[in-house]
């Protein structure tokens, strides 16, 4: 019976299957006859393989039709997303490049209005380069006059035609790589037939400033996710340009060449630290960071100190486990590569080997090798973090001391002494130290600085953004220390802006720079651009507003929606207010014709070129000597450079012409440097400074012990009058040593007698 039932059951199943297939075919025919209404495209979250598997289970041709319909709608959706993303990137890049170009054109127009450059002779144009700027540009001229590039480089590296009795490697000592590159580009591009050398030189610097602004734009854009932040960054940078850059006062300064590359490096580092970056973007950021770090190090002799602060920021970022250690240590490798390559190409510059940057990076890598793999969040892991921090600090100091013991280097003793006196650790009567302390750029920032930043609304928003980011960062750190697990991917709803590694790096870095800027005003040119970038990022970032709303526990309005609205409304309102208040001022500056008129200096330079012997050596204030070197090419006794102890000593000795010293003493000082002519400046001799005690003659009197000091030293009277006054009277013994050969309202030129004739 069982055998008989088997075939019958199988037969019944076949019949049922047949009938079902017939019914299905009838349904398909009916469906094919009736028109199918058009449906709105819907998003399909199924893959093609999932759709095919449904069809393989007998869903029929209608299912297949729906599959391809969903695929078409999905392709349209993703194409729309890609188009929107491309349009956003294109508009942002266009805005960034346009901002940089407009800023460069603005600088060019402002410079023309300020100095009337196109209407002046070459000598009058060169006089606009003041102090050390004149020295840099003079070497650019020397490179253009050289018969070949190799010969020009050799003359600069073995230069004995600038400072008397001294042969210097000007390329290494003054970081003249920008001038070398500019001279090569000027001749290689055929620009010598189109444009004058001075226009080409300042054009490159203005172009770099445009790149500077573009890099700040991109950095703020990367942090906030909207190019609106970049526009606000540029607006604040230009409005506060008195405190963001010194390009208006001194074009050839090293920082004007170097800081644009540092801004590019920061932009690349910001992208590199982002958690959601793909492989190709990460590789691009790494290459850009490597190139810009090395170029920055070659352009400025103090660049490794700034990179040292950056390395400290990355070390703290790594210490709190706020980013993968592998990424941070890849940046350390870039530092080491740039340092050693710079050491080789900067004529074995030992300053790079004894720099704190190298000691810190080597200590960090050694500490990583000694680090043990311990489970995060445990008590042992916390102890290991503290030990690792102590180990890195100890190794850094030890390695730096060892390197200075075994590596021959020029000890910048004046810098250490200056810091000791600056922070009240030491007292001194030394002229050079006190003169440096009296420089405005080395004093604490004035109240006007903070007032200007507040009037442009920059400082209030910066403080708000910094507080929110810092508190959120500390919240994340304490959670990690407590062993709590946090999501790797941060969404807008999380309201945790302090968990993003690139934000934490910038917060730490800006705090370090700001701390130094509060002590030395000159460092504000490094910090204020950071302030513009961070403030603009904050007000344009929905994550920052969402973080604030999450702390306030806002429930009346949907916090995500309100954060998105504020991230667009607040910067728009700020931008409109800045436009209304400051745009007319910028246009007025371009319309005003300023006057730069210095006929006395022009007459002095003209007399030197016409009357002085070619082999003559001039002595005077370092600032004036820089102008003489540029405008005439004559040899001088000193230069306005402050990174060389010997030049600083020369400057102090030459400045004795404004002290209460005898004619014989001054004569001995000048002849020891083989000087033939002495130039006395009436502005220094009769200086009436607002701060008594900071005039050159006051500082000289303190150094020579001719006044009562605060420590209660005894009063010492000088039996000689002030030399710069006495020499003008033309009586003995001054006329025995010096003969006046030229004078005008500002300058008195004396020939130093080789044969002393004593007159009664």
Largest sheet: 5 strands, mixed
Distance between the termini: 157 Å
Average pLDDT for all residues: 84
State the helical fraction.
55-70%
Instruction: Detail the poorly predicted runs.
Output: 1-68, 708-712
> What is the rounded Rg?
35 Å
Number of strands: 5
Number of helices: 33
* Percent in strands: under 5%
Arrangement of strands in the largest sheet: 2-1-3-5-4
What is the 3D form?
A: globular
**Structural class per helix/strand content?**
mainly alpha
Biased composition (Basic and acidic residues): 18-32
GO molecular function, one term: mannosyltransferase activity
Subcellular location: Membrane
Transmembrane segments: 89-110, 198-215, 221-239, 334-367, 387-407, 459-478, 503-520, 526-548, 560-579
């Amino acid at each position: 019976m069982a055998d008989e039932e088997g075939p019958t059951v199988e037969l019944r199943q076949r019949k049922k299957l047949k009938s079902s297939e017939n019914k299905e075919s009838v349904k398909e025919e009916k469906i094919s006859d009736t028109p199918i209404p058009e449906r709105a495209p819907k998003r399909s979250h199924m893959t093609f393989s999932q759709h095919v598997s449904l069809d393989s289970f007998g869903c029929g041709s209608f299912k297949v039709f729906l599959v391809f319909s969903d695929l078409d709608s999905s392709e349209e959706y993703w194409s729309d997303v890609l188009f929107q993303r491309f349009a956003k990137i294109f508009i942002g890049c266009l805005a960034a490049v346009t901002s940089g170009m407009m800023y460069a054109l603005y600088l060019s127009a402002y410079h023309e209005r300020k100095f009337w450059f196109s209407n002046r002779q070459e000598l009058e144009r060169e006089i606009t380069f003041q102090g050390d700027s004149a020295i840099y540009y003079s070497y650019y001229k020397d490179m253009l006059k050289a018969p070949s590039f190799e010969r020009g480089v050799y003359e600069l590296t073995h230069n004995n035609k600038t400072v008397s009795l001294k042969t210097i490697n000007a390329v290494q000592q003054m970081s003249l790589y920008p001038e070398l590159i500019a001279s090569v580009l000027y001749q290689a591009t055929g620009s010598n037939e189109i444009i004058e050398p001075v226009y080409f030189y300042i054009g490159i610097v203005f172009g770099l400033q445009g790149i500077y602004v573009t890099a700040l734009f991109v950095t703020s854009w990367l942090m906030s996710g909207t190019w609106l932040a970049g526009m606000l960054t540029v607006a604040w940078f230009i409005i506060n340009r008195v405190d963001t850059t010194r390009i208006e006062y001194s074009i050839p300064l090293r920082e004007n060449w170097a800081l644009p590359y540092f801004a590019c490096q920061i932009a690349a580092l910001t992208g590199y630290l982002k958690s959601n970056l793909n492989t190709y973007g990460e590789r691009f950021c790494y290459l850009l960071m490597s190139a810009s770090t090395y170029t920055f190090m070659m352009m400025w002799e103090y660049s490794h100190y700034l990179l040292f602060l950056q390395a400290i920021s990355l070390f703290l970022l790594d210490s709190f486990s706020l980013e993968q250690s592998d990424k941070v240590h890849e940046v350390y490798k870039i530092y080491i590569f740039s340092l050693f390559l710079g050491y080789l190409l900067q004529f074995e510059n030992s300053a790079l080997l004894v720099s704190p940057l190298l000691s810190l990076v080597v200590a960090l890598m050694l500490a990583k090798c000694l680090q043990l793999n311990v489970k995060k969040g445990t008590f042992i892991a916390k102890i290991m973090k503290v030990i690792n921090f102590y180990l890195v600090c100890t190794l850094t100091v030890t390695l730096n001391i060892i390197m200075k013991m075994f590596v021959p280097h020029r000890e910048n003793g004046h810098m250490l002494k200056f810091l000791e006196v600056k922070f009240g650790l030491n007292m001194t009567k030394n002229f050079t130290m006190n003169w440096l302390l009296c420089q405005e750029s080395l004093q604490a920032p004035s109240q006007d600085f903070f007032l200007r930043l507040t009037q442009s609304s920059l400082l209030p928003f910066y403080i708000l953004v910094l507080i929110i980011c810092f508190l959120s960062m500390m919240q994340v750190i304490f959670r990690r220390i407590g062993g709590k697990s946090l999501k790797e991917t941060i969404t807008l709803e999380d309201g945790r802006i302090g968990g993003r590694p690139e934000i934490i790096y910038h917060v730490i870095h800006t705090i370090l720079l700001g701390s130094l800027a509060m002590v030395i005003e000159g460092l504000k040119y490094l910090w204020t651009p950071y302030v513009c970038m961070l403030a603009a990022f904050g007000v344009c970032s929905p994550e920052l507003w969402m973080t604030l709303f999450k702390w306030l526990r806002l429930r009346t309005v949907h916090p995500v929606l309100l954060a998105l609205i504020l991230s667009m409304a607040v910067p728009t309102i700020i931008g409109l207010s800045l436009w209304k208040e400051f745009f007319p001022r910028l246009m007025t500056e371009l319309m005003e014709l300023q006057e730069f008129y210095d006929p006395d200096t022009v007459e002095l330079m003209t007399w030197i070129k016409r009357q002085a012997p070619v082999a003559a050596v001039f002595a005077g204030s370092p600032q004036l000597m820089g102008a003489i070197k540029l405008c005439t090419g004559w040899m001088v006794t000193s230069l306005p450079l402050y990174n060389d102890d010997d030049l600083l000593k020369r400057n102090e000795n030459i400045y004795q012409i404004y002290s209460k010293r005898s004619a014989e003493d001054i004569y001995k000082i000048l002849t020891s440097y083989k000087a033939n002519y002495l130039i006395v400046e009436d502005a220094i001799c009769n200086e009436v400074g607002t701060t008594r005690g900071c005039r050159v003659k006051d500082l000289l009197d303190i150094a020579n012990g001719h006044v009562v000091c605060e420590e209660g030293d005894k009063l010492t009277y000088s039996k000689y009058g002030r030399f710069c006054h006495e020499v003008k009277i033309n009586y003995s013994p001054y006329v025995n040593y010096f003969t006046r050969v030229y004078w005008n309202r500002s300058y008195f030129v004396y020939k130093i007698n080789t044969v002393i004739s004593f007159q009664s």
